[in-house]
Write a structure and sequence with these properties.
The chain is of the alpha/beta class. It is built from 7 helices and 10 strands.
């Protein structure tokens, strides 16, 4: 049975202000690394939309901007590697008083356009919404400095391995937390620079056709964790 190597956490400079590699160059990095798929998880967060502060812009215009990285990656892939739409969302509410990020899988463009100001939700409300829509939610690097623990009932799982070499994500603690709370596990390179290529990801035991397939296999199988 063919395996399917998938990057689960990647950012493009087309959308995410913290990223420094274009979607086109990122796709080449992952093709050369032998990956079969990549989830574009650009930031849907206050930093992404800071360029619009003080301007009268619609939610549609914000999502048009958010999708730039994904659309560029999809075009660059040209069938050579599967490209999936995801996101790394951070909420605005000041009372949250944290820097928590959540990786969402199974995202559709329609969902983004239809659900105005989802970045102003609270995690309980957001979790209910994404699960209703058949998506999956994992807390990204939950033990990195500035993060706070999210109640497991709102999550499908957590990122137990984050490969970014410029942060200490305390991956060993995250792995133990997942075990203690029966949470599913994911791994991602947290790609922002060329040096981040293929430092993390998941290896599925079968091919993934689309986003629905990705979510189903993520939730129902036990993919191998890449740790590099």
């Amino acid at each position: 049975m063919d395996s399917f190597i998938c990057e689960m956490h990647a950012h493009t400079k087309n959308t995410s202000r913290c990223a420094h590699v274009s979607a086109e160059d990122m796709i080449n990095d992952y093709i050369n690394a032998g990956y079969n798929g990549i989830v574009i998880t650009d930031h849907l967060s206050p930093s992404t939309f800071a360029k619009f502060e003080g301007k009268a812009v619609s939610w549609k215009e914000k999502i048009d901007f958010f999708l730039r990285g994904y659309n560029a990656a999809l075009k660059a892939a040209n069938g050579k590697i599967k490209v999936f739409l995801g996101m790394e969302i951070r909420f605005y509410f000041p009372e949250n008083a944290n820097m928590n990020d959540y990786l969402v899988y199974g995202v559709t463009e329609k969902f983004l356009y239809d659900n105005v100001d989802i970045d102003h939700m609270r995690i309980a409300e957001f979790s209910e919404l994404v699960h209703k829509k058949g998506m999956a939610i994992f807390q990204a690097h939950p033990f990195r400095t500035g993060m706070t623990i999210t109640k497991p009932k709102y999550l499908d799982g957590i990122e137990v391995y984050n490969g970014c070499p410029r942060h200490n994500s305390y991956n060993d603690i995250a792995n133990d937390w997942a075990d203690a709370n029966s949470l599913l596990k994911t791994s991602g390179s947290d790609y922002h620079e060329h040096e981040d290529t293929a430092r993390g990801g998941l290896i599925f035991d079968r091919q993934i056709k689309d986003n629905n397939d990705l979510v189903r296999l993520l939730l129902e199988t036990n993919p191998e964790i890449i740790r590099r």
